[in-house]
Write a structure and sequence with these properties.
The structure is a homodimer. Chain A is mainly alpha-helical. Helix content of chain A is 66%, strand content 4%. In chain A, strand 3 and strand 4 form a beta hairpin. In chain A, helix 1 packs across helix 15, helix 6 packs parallel to helix 26 and helix 12 packs across helix 18. Chain A is globular, with a radius of gyration of 29 Å. The first copy, chain A, starts with a helix and ends with a helix. Chains A, B: One of its GO terms (cellular component) is plasma membrane.
């Protein structure tokens, strides 16, 4: 790719970004768009719709940037929880890393690369006609001693990243403990989920649980709720809710008569009455089914068991309860709202099969996804495109068109394809057997991350058939050499990718295109202005994206340092925009208290090791074998560092220590409200499908909030 | 190798076995050999030395075989502990597996193999001139449908082995629980070892431990013993013990005067006085050092902490105690006699470095060991030997010599080389940071096992340079094909190996050559007939050997079923001989309660998967690709089975369940002797180097037992 193609892509994307910023600055001030741009403030009631018109509303203003910039970490923590803080720290972490890498890259490595003559000498007279490869390490001659500069840069950046990783892990780990100490008593702290409950003949699951815990944990056991099979109930409730929504809509519509419908035999039936009747039927059905479920003993061999202290709940969770390790398996309970109820409907064997199916599905999906990626890669080879589509020959000779096609289109298409990965991965995780939404998203996050690394990084680098790629990994000793050849060759594509995918996706995140379009389409049909839901941050989409950019930055910083300024711009954009979104748009759906960080840490270590392997390969390729040899200890050191961090911090991310639990329990001892809390604990984990619903009555008084609490997720 | 070479080897080894049996049957009846052949009975006092001579003593009698055969599992359990039972069950497990495999192999597969014509048709007229390859799968033509018989055999044997593995795991797991329930209160059940104790300025480790456990475990904490750095003390004590031994020897010798020695200046000094003086010096030195250690606070940040119930000790062991996971690390305490004290002298960082060093050393040792193995393999190629040593040409043409060299010598040399592996591995494990002798041996067992599999199986199969072998494993997709070519080719070597190594080593185990020789040499110098130590079973030598034979049996049963009868004979020998040895010779040094079984299970699964990979390769090589494809699911199923077993049984082998602990604790509540036991608990984990020793006094009254309790192992 030539410099000019990059400049074209840069121009298009900068234009888009500016456009999005300006549009956002105007549109966010229109009251009709409040539910798109500040749903959170609206829901909290801290922002009211002002319908008064003034000129200011039409002039773009950057006030929101200042507010986002000024937001302190404490405010973020109190308003959006620790997960939001961790997310912002990923961005600042990358900013720090790439600031140092950027200084080294731009001011030291870039001039060195340009001074090389292996590919071509730089042409200052017609700058935009230089190939981007001039700026990469490929331009340095074999055996050149200047490669030791790159070698030093690799060591310095690895050391800096490791130092920062340690610092962050330590910080977030201590934040997690602080968060726990400052938290109010919450049901999930006092509760465990027990599965594989053995039931002797003639007794129920409930009796079995009661007997077991009264026998072995008499002093701490409080209560339990056995889980029942409620998938049929749940689908009935969902049907009812849909019908009820429609009914509400009809009732609130002043032009109700319009909707009366001509039936087949000519008789006019009031649609409202019709729906009302259906709803009553469903309700009756629900009542019947529910009593059936309760009486017939449709119990699953799983139960939420609550204890009278956090430490009391932690002991059975940490120990093997029964002599048969497949019975009485305990795990930490999720927050009550976070429980993924549909999961419990499947049996143990089914869950095992599903797990295997998910693994196979993930592998298949990852492999099949290569097909569009390879096609996209074909676009960067104009000559090949001409062979495939001879008709395009005329158009492709126009410089601008060819620049758009090579510089902008490939990464745009790739990005669109990648949009479908997170929902698929989330679906796969949901059938894999996790008991909470947060676990599902955490698992989906890891899946999406590896999917992106494989399908963007490796697929682009080794563009070729699937079998060719698999062959590379089946021949481990040649990996460094093959990476060393293939990775620098794709530098220009990834620079364009950062600009297209990074810049545009971040600014479109600000602009919220899809919610805006939905809101525009819905507006004529809906009168109720309160009918909106506050969205929540989908970490499994956002975290892998940033981590992929970090991977690109770390692997390319010494190969093609030109990528760094673009990455830094992306990170600055993300820093401001996501802070703004946390303030105005997203609500916390659940709180994992920073459990996403270990994924981030692992991904960074992977990036470092990958970079070091490439360095080894490239130094060998450039015939500076001493540098290649000295790169090997760096890999070992990085892996040892990772091992140390796993020992030092990871345990804190799975459970809290006895020390912390006992201290926190003692702090609560004198709290008068604890009695009340323990009373609420007995019903906290009631399956929402088992709670009574009355559509017909609530339909009369438009009791909307009741419905939203009834809606079944998943 | 020809059938005649195998017959030669068979004849030599059968002769040796018979010789050993006859000699054993006679020698064991000589009172002077009691300490070699029945030291255990002697120590227990159940057998007295009869010096009366009778003719019966000179006639070999098989009475001991009958007694060994009749020994029941309960008797074995009560006399030698669960580990001995597990060891014998490994042998019976193999016997069961190879009985079925033997029936299938000899009566179905062997005739099928012989009927093939790929290599040569079998020559019944001159049977002993047939190559052994006639009996192997190599003799079947490519594409022959008869290979489906082998395919079925692979499925049947895999199924049978998995069924038996499940049954045994289940049985031993329940035996383990039963053993726990029936055990008396033992110090290690009530104690944990805590490491990484943080110490604030101005306080000692002891205070720190006391504060922590009184704060967080006030109701269960009993006492603690802080570990001190005693390596200097230990070497002093060892010096003293040696000197004391020599002194004792002199004192008990009636010809004491003889030992008086001419000194440099002509003055005669009584040696006994001289040693006595030295001993007093050491004792004084010891007293000084000990008070120094006690007062100067030479404390290590580790302590044994005892609790008033088993369950109380289990809770801190299972939980993360401190918010910093590298502090207050708890693990189960070993039995007091089993503690490996020298270990504690090293710091955390040193231990980490040692661990790395051990890993590197193991890899280096395994690789370097290939050199003798490859040389040994050279012996099977007579022609190559002639090229190396042209002088031997004349001798090598003699049939008997060449038969001995190809059939007997290679496996004998290999076996001798392998004798040095277990002590080296034990040494490596001992510096790796395990806190008990049993852990060290368990780790050494695994090391020796993989060492044997690599250096006997793979090194023989892929005889060639080290680099060639590593290259094979770096090219994973060709492994089945390469195995399929190389494994059947070595069938005859392994048949000879089973006969030589298996048969002879087992019968020499019975004969106890080395202890017998030692005893013969020592006898003229020692008058005291009570000066002997009961040996203990070295599981890390014996278990890998049996497992290696099981690997050979499982991988070769369908390739060259001729190996199976020899294996069965080996196993029958081992069955009788080891039962005899457990009864008469070996004492239990420690009790892991069956913790060796998971290693056995893993090794069996590895053997199965290896066999299946070879089957896949060989069916592909023989152009029955459908059978090759259908072998793949078997690998997946075997691994899934292993995964299930890990979930189902493995947790029971690391710790006991809450249910078992609480039940056992309740059983003890009414026991009146518990008070006494708790008193003894406070000093159970006292470092033996810190106990007072008085050589000078004990030297006067020949208090031998005192010394043996003082001797420091390791």
């Amino acid at each position: 790719m030539l410099v000019s193609a990059l400049l074209t892509s840069l121009a298009i994307n900068s234009g888009l970004c500016v456009l999005f910023f300006v549009l956002y600055s105007i549109l966010r001030k229109q009251p009709s768009n409040y539910e798109v741009y500040i749903p959170r403030l609206l829901a909290e009631g801290s922002s009211k719709r002002r319908s008064r018109f003034n000129l200011e509303r039409l002039i773009p203003s950057p006030g929101w940037v200042r507010r986002a910039w000024k937001l302190s970490e404490e405010d973020l923590l109190s308003s959006s929880g620790l997960d939001a803080v961790v997310y912002m720290r990923i961005i600042t972490f990358c900013l720090k890393v790439f600031s140092l890498a950027g200084i080294i890259g731009i001011f030291i490595i870039l001039p060195v690369n340009c001074s090389g003559t292996a590919l071509q000498t730089i042409d200052f007279t017609d700058f935009s006609n230089n190939s981007l490869d001039v700026f990469s390490i490929s331009n340095i001659e074999s055996g050149s001693q200047r490669l030791w500069i790159h070698f030093c840069a690799v060591y310095i950046v690895t050391g800096f990243v490791c130092y920062l990783l340690y610092y962050e892990y330590n910080y977030i780990s201590s934040q997690r403990t602080a968060y726990f100490y400052s938290s109010k008593p919450q049901p999930h702290q006092f509760t465990i989920l027990v599965r594989g409950i053995p039931v002797s003949a003639g007794s129920t699951v409930s009796e079995s649980v009661e007997n077991f815990f009264k026998e072995y944990y008499p002093s701490t056991y409080l209560s339990h709720i056995v889980i029942r099979r409620t998938n049929k109930l749940r689908s009935l409730i969902n049907d009812g809710t849909k019908l009820y929504r429609r009914l509400l809509h009809l009732q609130s519509d002043p032009n109700q008569e319009k909707y009366k419908r001509l039936r087949l035999f000519g008789s006019k039936v009031d649609l409202v009455d019709h729906y009302g009747k259906q709803l009553e039927d469903i309700e009756e059905n629900l009542r019947l089914k529910r009593s059936e479920v309760t009486s017939a003993g449709d119990e699953i061999r799983a139960a939420f068991v609550s204890f009278n202290s956090r430490y009391g709940a932690a002991i059975p969770f940490h120990m093997q309860l029964s002599t048969n390790p497949t019975n009485w398996i305990a795990e930490q309970a999720p927050e009550p709202d976070d429980v993924f109820w549909p999961f419990f409907s499947t049996s143990f064997i089914k869950r095992w099969i599903y797990k295997l199916v998910v693994v196979v599905a993930c592998i298949l999906l990852t492999i099949l996804f290569l097909i569009p990626v390879v096609l996209v890669q074909g676009l960067t080879n104009l000559s090949q495109l001409e062979i495939w589509f001879p008709i395009l020959k005329g158009i492709l000779t126009i410089t601008f068109v060819s620049e758009v096609i090579t510089g902008y289109l490939p990464s745009l298409i790739l990005q669109l394809f990648l949009k479908i990965a997170p929902p698929i991965m989330e679906f796969l995780s949901s059938i894999q057997g996790y008991i909470s939404h947060s676990e599902i998203e955490k698992s989906a996050c890891t899946k999406v991350l590896w999917f992106s690394i494989w399908n963007i990084f490796f697929a682009t680098v080794f563009s070729g058939s699937v079998l060719y790629q698999i062959n590379i990994f089946l021949d481990p000793k040649n990996i460094p050499g093959k990476l060393a050849v293939a990775v620098p060759a794709q530098a220009s594509f990834f620079i364009a990718y950062v600009v297209t995918s990074g810049w545009t996706s971040t600014s479109s995140e600000l602009f919220q295109i899809i919610p805006l379009l939905c809101s525009l389409i819905k507006r004529p049909f809906s009168k109720s202005t309160d009918d909106f839901q506050v969205p929540y941050m989908q970490y499994h989409r956002e975290i892998p994206r940033i981590l992929l950019f970090a991977l690109l930055g770390i692997t390319y910083f010494f190969l093609a340092p030109l990528i760094l300024p673009f990455l830094l711009v992306y990170l600055c954009l993300a820093y401001i925009i996501y802070r703004n979104q946390f303030m105005n748009v997203y609500e916390a759906k659940y709180e994992t208290a920073g459990k996403f960080w270990p994924t981030v840490h692992n991904s960074m270590i992977f990036s470092l090791v990958l970079m070091q392997i490439i360095a080894m390969g490239i130094f060998a390729l450039k015939k500076v074998s001493l540098a290649s040899t000295f790169s090997a200890p760096l890999i070992v050191l990085t892996l040892l560092f990772n091992e140390y961090c796993r020992k030092r911090f990871l345990p804190n991310f799975t459970s809290y220590s006895a020390e912390a639990l006992i201290k926190k329990d003692r702090g609560d001892q004198d709290d008068a409200t604890m009695g009340e809390f323990f009373d609420s604990l007995t019903t906290a984990y009631q399956d929402p499908a088992m709670l009574p619903v009355r559509y017909s009555e609530s339909a009369d008084n438009l009791n909307e909030p009741l419905i939203s609490s009834l809606e079944i997720r998943g």
